[in-house]
C-alpha cells in the first residue's frame, strides 16, 4: 500500500476515492434514473415526476435531520454529492412505486435497478468524504474478512522471535485479546504492530509504544485498511535499521457506531479500558517500555481528541501525543449540554474531568510532555514552549468553532501548563488518507521523542533554531 499523489491509499486496486470509477458509477446511475423516469404521459410529467422529486427532497431533509440530531458526522458538513444522491435515491424509489402501473416491463426493470444504483452512489459519496474504503480491493478484503497484509498469529510471532526470524515484508501485525476486568468494557479483538527489530532477540529489545485511536465510526483495523498505517511504519522502520515503536490499535468504541469519545460514561468505560487494560497487556506481552517516557498516544478525528484528553488526564502514562484533527473536548452533541447528557448521563463534573483544557489547567505544570496538534486546514505552523508557571483558567472554549481555532486554543492551554506543543498544518481533507499523511509527517518526531533506538530526537515543527 502506498500514498498516491492525490492522497488516496493505493492497495494495488482501482481507487474508490479518485479516478475513473467513481465518475463512471455516477454516470451509469444517472442514466438509469433518466431512463426510469422516461417521457411517459402528460399526467406523469405534470404530477408523477414533481411528487417523486418532492419525496426525494424529503428524503434528503430527513437524512439531514438525522445527522443533526445524532451528530454522526461531528461538526463537518457532508459534501454536496452526498445530499444530491440522497435526494436522487428517494426520487428513484418514488419513481419505482408511483410509476409501476401502466408502463412496460423493461422500464420497470430499469426502475428497479436504478434504486440500488442511486444508493450505491450515496455510499460512494460517503466513502469519498471519509476515505474509509480506498480501493475496490480493500473493500473486498473488508467484506470477506481477509487478513491484513503482514498479519500473523500471536503464537507465530513469538515463534519467529525465538528463531530470530524477521517478517518477510516490514513488520508484523498480531491480534490480541485484552481483559475487561478493570473497565467492564466489552470490546472486539485489538491489534498490535511489531517492527522488524522486535524479532531480532528473545527477549526483544525494549521498545517504546504508541497507542493509535481512530474515528468515531469504525473498527481497530481502520488505521491499516483506510489509513495505510502499516506502510507508513514499515517505511520508517526500513530507514532506521528495523527500529520503530510498537503500535497498539485498541477498540475504543466496542462496536462500529458506539461513539465513546474515549471517556467513562453510559456508553462504556472506554478510558479505563485504554489506560488500565491495554497498556499492562502490551507491556507484559511484548516487553515494551513500562515508563511514561516510552509511551505516546496518537489519533485521528475522535482519536485525536482522545489523544490529548488521555495525555492530559494520565501524564503518568503518556509523555507525548499526536492529535490529528481532533475536537476541543469529547464532543457528541449540538451543544455542550447535549454532550454532557449523551456521554456522561448528565454529570457535568464527569464532563469536566474529561475536558482536556480544564484538566490541564487543574493539573498545573506537567512533567516533560509534548504534543503535535495537526490540522488539515492551510494555516501557519506555530510552536509554543511549555511554561512552568501553570494556568488555572483555560479561558472560554471555542465551541462551536473551526479546527485551527480549536488547535491553537488547546496548544495555548497546554503550553501554559508546561507542555511543549506545535500546531502543524498539512492541508488536506478531513478523511482517513489525511490521517495517514499526518502520521507519516509526525512519526520521526514521535518515535524520537519516545526514545526509539537508532532514531534521533528532532524538535517539534516551528521550534526556533536558537531553542532547538
TrEMBL record:
GO molecular function terms attached to this record: acyltransferase activity, transferring groups other than amino-acyl groups
Top-rank taxon, per record: Bacteria
Stored Pfam families: Esterase
UniProt subcellular location: Secreted
GO CC annotation terms, alphabetical: extracellular region
InterPro entries hit by this protein: AB_hydrolase_fold, Esterase-like, Mycobacterial_A85_antigen
Key words, A-Z: Membrane, Secreted, Transmembrane, Transmembrane helix
Residue ranges of the TM segments: 20-39, 46-68, 80-100, 112-132
Protein name as catalogued: Esterase
Organism this protein belongs to: Mycolicibacterium madagascariense
Amino acid at each position: 500500500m502506498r500514498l498516491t499523489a492525490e492522497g488516496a491509499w493505493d492497495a494495488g486496486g482501482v481507487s474508490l476515492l479518485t479516478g475513473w470509477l467513481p465518475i463512471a458509477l455516477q454516470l451509469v446511475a444517472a442514466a438509469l434514473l433518466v431512463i426510469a423516469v422516461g417521457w411517459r404521459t402528460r399526467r406523469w410529467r405534470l404530477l408523477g415526476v414533481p411528487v417523486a422529486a418532492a419525496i426525494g427532497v424529503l428524503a434528503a431533509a430527513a437524512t439531514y435531520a438525522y445527522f443533526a440530531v445524532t451528530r454522526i458526522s461531528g461538526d463537518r458538513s457532508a459534501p454536496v454529492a452526498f445530499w444530491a444522491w440522497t435526494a436522487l435515491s428517494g426520487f428513484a424509489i418514488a419513481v419505482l412505486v408511483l410509476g409501476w402501473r401502466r408502463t412496460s416491463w423493461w422500464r420497470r426493470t430499469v426502475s428497479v435497478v436504478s434504486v440500488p444504483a442511486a444508493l450505491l452512489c450515496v455510499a460512494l459519496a460517503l466513502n469519498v468524504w471519509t476515505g474509509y474504503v480506498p480501493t475496490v480491493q480493500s473493500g473486498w478484503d473488508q467484506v470477506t474478512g481477509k487478513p491484513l497484509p503482514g498479519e500473523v498469529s500471536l503464537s507465530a510471532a513469538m515463534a519467529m522471535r525465538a528463531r530470530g526470524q524477521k517478517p518477510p515484508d516490514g513488520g508484523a501485525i498480531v491480534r490480541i485479546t485484552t481483559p475487561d476486568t478493570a473497565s467492564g468494557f466489552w470490546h472486539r479483538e485489538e491489534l498490535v504492530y511489531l517492527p522488524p527489530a522486535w524479532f531480532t532477540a528473545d527477549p526483544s529489545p525494549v521498545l517504546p509504544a504508541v497507542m493509535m485511536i481512530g474515528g468515531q465510526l469504525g473498527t481497530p483495523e481502520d488505521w491499516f485498511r483506510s489509513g495505510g498505517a502499516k506502510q507508513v511504519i514499515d517505511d520508517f522502520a526500513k530507514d532506521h535499521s528495523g527500529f520503530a515503536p510498537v503500535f497498539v490499535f485498541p477498540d475504543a468504541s466496542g462496536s462500529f457506531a458506539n461513539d465513546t469519545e474515549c471517556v467513562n460514561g453510559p456508553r462504556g468505560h472506554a478510558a479505563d479500558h485504554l489506560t488500565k487494560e491495554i497498556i499492562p497487556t502490551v507491556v507484559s506481552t511484548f516487553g515494551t517500555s513500562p515508563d511514561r517516557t516510552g509511551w505516546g498516544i496518537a489519533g485521528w478525528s475522535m482519536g485525536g481528541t482522545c489523544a490529548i484528553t488521555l495525555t492530559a488526564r494520565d501524564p503518568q502514562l503518556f509523555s507525548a501525543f499526536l492529535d490529528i484533527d481532533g475536537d476541543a473536548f469529547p464532543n457528541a452533541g449540538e451543544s455542550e449540554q447535549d454532550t454532557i447528557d449523551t456521554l456522561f448521563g448528565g454529570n457535568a463534573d464527569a464532563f469536566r474531568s474529561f475536558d482536556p483544557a480544564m484538566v490541564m489547567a487543574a493539573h498545573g505544570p506537567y512533567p516533560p510532555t509534548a504534543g503535535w496538534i495537526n490540522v488539515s486546514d492551510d494555516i501557519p505552523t506555530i510552536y509554543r514552549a511549555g511554561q512552568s508557571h501553570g494556568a488555572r483558567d483555560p479561558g472560554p472554549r471555542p465551541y462551536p468553532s473551526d479546527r485551527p481555532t480549536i488547535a491553537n486554543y488547546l496548544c495555548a492551554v497546554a503550553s501554559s501548563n508546561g507542555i511543549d506543543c506545535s500546531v502543524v498544518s498539512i492541508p488536506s481533507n478531513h478523511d482517513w488518507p489525511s490521517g495517514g499523511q499526518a502520521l507519516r509527517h509526525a512519526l520521526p518526531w514521535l518515535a524520537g521523542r519516545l526514545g526509539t533506538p537508532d532514531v534521533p530526537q528532532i524538535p517539534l515543527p516551528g521550534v526556533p533554531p536558537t531553542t532547538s
